[in-house]
């Protein structure tokens, strides 16, 4: 184990805490840019609560609405322009992962004269690494990406069909105001996708990481078991605030960094999914739900012991030994069954995607992340042929 | 779940990282106060490595050595005086929990004109809450207290025989430089005490916390299982850097705050132990090792389900149901056997402590922390009679 870790985000968690937003924002600025998505926060009443709290604290605000589910760099540029035009000095990200991701990049783009796409890692040689950013306060309305408490952002360039990311400490939100009551209006399908998304965040580090990370392993298993226990409750009864709170906390923990510490893991499933959803405007978690089990069956052949641990600790299976591939595969089958039980797709055909571009996805994925030997980092590393085989298995 | 959480400490973890200390310190100051304990860091060579790294980075330093195993407020005052006399602007805490705890309080005391004891919570009405402190860099040489990555400190007033604490965000170390190689010289008994200490940190929040904290539970179980697997390896072969790294990380995770989030737990075993070790200069962990199993047997009667979970998940026992007190007690027996297997005491008589002051310890404990109804917070709350019964069971 050799690593560095720091996550300075201040978390304020619990039902009703949205009322404290204005007071929180007032510690960082006088005029907020409130970033939102397609309008659900206005229908749910969350936006009104935010406005009420900001006004009570004497905070002015401007608005940047309409951030897409796969947030585009053009939305980032638009948000940055509003910040400059309106003189905002703090950003409130009210929405799901896409809104929070866009907000983080807006926070740096607003103080940068160049093209915001310069900051996004996408295989280019000279990435611009920003050194200053406006403070961001996240207010998640969906339990899914964990973006509220980490420093990453995934952004799509719709012109070049490239979906890539930025992840630098500068972009940690100052505060995450997590109020599970804001998530009760999330529809069943989006709730299920959130559960799939958060589980995939931890299966990646768990299954691609180095050996001997026992505490991180137990934490990951806790996240998965919690999501599998409380997720279906939140899906069955959206107004169950306890279930909403449990999966919201699970989603944050999944990607706050604690589970990833020292694992040195690639995120191959995410990398492949990003490329697919750059071509098809599908929900990120739907892509993950399809690719992850197929990737697992591929990876279990070479990293059997960890998949056996997954099968035993998550599904209570009993393996004959650490090399019991049948047990490992049974665990993956059970996991796929869980995804289907919450109505997540597990085959490309369910989304009308055929094999036409499989090789293109694979090659594009390597343009974003590459181990220097023409393979995608992960355990095992994946060649173009490996990726195509995984995609085909998920057809 | 309703909570706030923030831990801004920057962790640099891994063998060999002590060489980076000077570079790290140079980001915070020009002249360091190096705080140390009884001299083991000089015998082990750790002090020389620190000096070498500081010098290479052009950092001057003064020294405050001789901090006691149960650090005294007089040592804090002495450290603060050296800071002022020598013009130090950053503090390096090189040692175990006592050195790190003292360093944190020195960091605030150096900027406060009054008596440092004013800052320590000890039942008084007007605690002075400091608002400024010098930056602290922790360099733990022992896997035990987790003080390196949290904002708490336990301090003893030798005049009044009061051992109490301060815990405020101001005292988070800026950086924790955790180099497991620095811990290879820790003798077997101190290594074992460290293992006991770190486990007790998490059994407290796990067993005294509210219901429905499933992720925190799994994390705690991971810490305990890791300490029980790797602790004996580190005790058997002190030079096993992998084992040293595993228990060092377990100790940090145990009290970094992640496991405590949302549990709202009292720390009754710690509170009782502090009072006992204020009267007898025993190792903190030895006191914990004696009191914890006795407390567990008392608490299992009223919170049986959680102790059953402990028995099942830590020791693989199979309960007849969540109310299976026999299974719960069997788990506690197994835990006590583990403590004995690493040569930790489990009875007061082993340390030559008799029942003479049991009622005094109990009453003194309530002077430090009290729920307002004359009981010690915890699950269940404890009266003076309850505490005396627990002490007697550990005689």
UniProtKB/TrEMBL annotation, chains A, B:
Alphabetized GO MF terms: alcohol dehydrogenase (NADP+) activity; butanol dehydrogenase (NAD+) activity; metal ion binding; methylglyoxal reductase (NADPH) (acetol producing) activity
Record bears the keyword Transferase: no
InterPro entries the record matches: ADH_Fe/GldA, ADH_Fe_C, BDH-like
Start and end residues of each Alcohol dehydrogenase iron-type/glycerol dehydrogenase GldA domain: 8-180
Keywords for this protein: Oxidoreductase
One Pfam family cited in the UniProt record for this chain: Fe-ADH
CDD domains associated with the record: BDH (cd08187)
A cellular component annotation (GO) from this entry: cytosol
Domain Fe-containing alcohol dehydrogenase-like C-terminal: 191-395
Membership in a protein family: Belongs to the iron-containing alcohol dehydrogenase family.
Protein name: Iron-containing alcohol dehydrogenase
Organism name: Pseudodesulfovibrio cashew
């Amino acid at each position: 184990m050799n690593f560095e870790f720091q996550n300075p985000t201040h978390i304020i968690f619990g039902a009703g805490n949205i009322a404290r937003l204005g007071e929180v924002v007032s510690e960082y600025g006088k005029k907020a840019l409130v970033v939102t998505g397609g309008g659900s926060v206005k229908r749910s009443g969350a936006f009104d609560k935010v406005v009420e709290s900001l006004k009570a604290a004497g905070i002015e605000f401007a608005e940047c609405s309409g951030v897409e589910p796969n947030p585009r760099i053009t939305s980032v540029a638009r948000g940055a322009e509003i910040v400059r035009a309106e003189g905002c000095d703090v950003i409130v990200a009210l929405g799901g992962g896409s809104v929070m991701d866009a907000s983080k990049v807006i926070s740096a783009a607003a103080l940068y004269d160049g093209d915001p796409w310069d900051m996004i890692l996408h295989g280019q040689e000279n990435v611009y690494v920003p050194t200053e950013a406006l403070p961001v306060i996240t207010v998640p309305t969906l339990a899914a990406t964990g973006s509220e408490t980490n420093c990453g952002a995934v952004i799509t360039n719709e012109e070049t069909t490239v979906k890539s990311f930025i992840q630098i400490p500068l972009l940690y939100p100052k505060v995450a105001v997590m109020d599970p009551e804001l998530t009760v209006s999330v529809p069943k399908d989006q709730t299920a996708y959130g559960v799939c998304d958060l589980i995939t965040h931890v299966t990646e580090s768990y299954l691609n990481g180095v050996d001997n990370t026992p505490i991180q392993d137990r934490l990951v298993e806790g996240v998965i078991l919690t999501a599998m226990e409380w997720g279906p409750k939140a899906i069955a009864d959206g107004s169950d605030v306890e279930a909403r709170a449990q999966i919201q906390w699970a989603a944050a923990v999944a990607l706050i960094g604690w589970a990833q510490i020292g694992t040195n893991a690639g995120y191959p499933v995410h990398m492949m999914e990003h490329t697919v959803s750059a071509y098809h405007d599908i929900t990120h978690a739907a892509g993950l739900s399809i690719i992850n089990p197929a990737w697992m069956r591929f990876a279990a052949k070479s990293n059997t012991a960890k998949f056996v641990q997954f099968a035993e600790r998550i599904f209570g299976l009993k393996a004959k030994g650490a090399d019991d591939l049948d047990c490992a595969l049974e665990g993956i089958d059970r996991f796929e069954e869980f995804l289907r039980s919450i109505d997540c797709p597990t085959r490309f055909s369910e989304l009308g995607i055929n094999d036409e571009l499989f090789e293109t996805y694979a090659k594009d994925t390597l343009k974003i992340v590459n181990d220097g030997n023409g393979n995608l980092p992960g355990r095992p590393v994946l060649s173009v042929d490996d990726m195509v085989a995984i995609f085909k298995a998920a057809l």
